[in-house]
User: Fold D-alanine--D-alanine ligase from Verticiella sediminum.
Amino acid sequence: MGRVGVLYGGSSAEREVSLMSGAGVHSALREAGVDAHLFDTGKEGIAALAGAGFDRVFIALHGRWGEDGCIQGALELLGIPYTGSGVAACALAMDKVMTKRVWLQHKLPTPRFAVLRAGESLEAVPGEVGLPLIVKPAHEGSTLGLTKVCTPASLAGAYELAARYDTAVLAEEFIAGRELTVAVLGSDETARVLPVIEILAPDGNYDFQNKYYSDDTRYVCPAQLSESVTRQVQALAVAAYRAVGCAGWGRVDVMLDREHRPYLLEVNTAPGMTGHSLVPMAAAAAGMSYSELCVEILASARCKLQPHSVPMT
Assistant:
């Protein structure tokens, strides 16, 4: 693999999670004999990255400036192969509103939604989306700034919380049912799914604390679904992944309503790799160790933009 950089930390609201993910990936790669080195993009800039001599990098960054196409664009310019999706897919997946619009264009099911912006009235939102609904920042992950709204009176407070993280806020129909997630490895026609995971959080609240630190959240992997529903959910996840243009690896979050109809929530192009994270859990259920998973993802690293010659004048 050559000299490998594990990009982690960063400067997004998800820095804390990224530090844990990067440390885990770095340790696993070193254990597998890879010459891996940690590189905190929140402390060192592009010049330092250019001079680090990395032959390829594993992106363990989450959130803005790491998962949104920014670092991917810099790596393309530097000619350093990297894990995960390219610039366009990362930018699209990071924008939950645009992702939903792409899925709808592909006739893939996703909950009803409305975009909330500063200064605009919220009065019509419950009628458009229904109650209860979910309010969350349009460009954040890890459930940061997310609120379940059950009454019109609590919508303003939920908006204010989400707006601390983003100027664009998403109000989304709440789908009552089972919370599922599907990890995908590979690209294009070679993309394959890992076993479906069902998330059982305390009181149905899969927030930041229950996602990364609580031992009370339970996970069922493989999820106890019928064979036909499992195939339907997995096929939908792959279709969603391909529609956005994802590559290398990712994770698609799905809600299954009480009539066993799946709805797409979002796609993550650089999912968590912590001790509580879901992609390693799904890989383990498929017989793949954490270290093997990291090596497979790293082996898929490449630049996505093909170089071309510029005529000299």
Summary: The chain has three domains: 3-83, 91-109+176-299, 113-173. The radius of gyration is 19 Å. The first helix runs from residue 15 to 31. Residues 91-109+176-299 form a domain with the D-amino Acid Aminotransferase; Chain A, domain 1 fold (CATH 3.30.470.20).
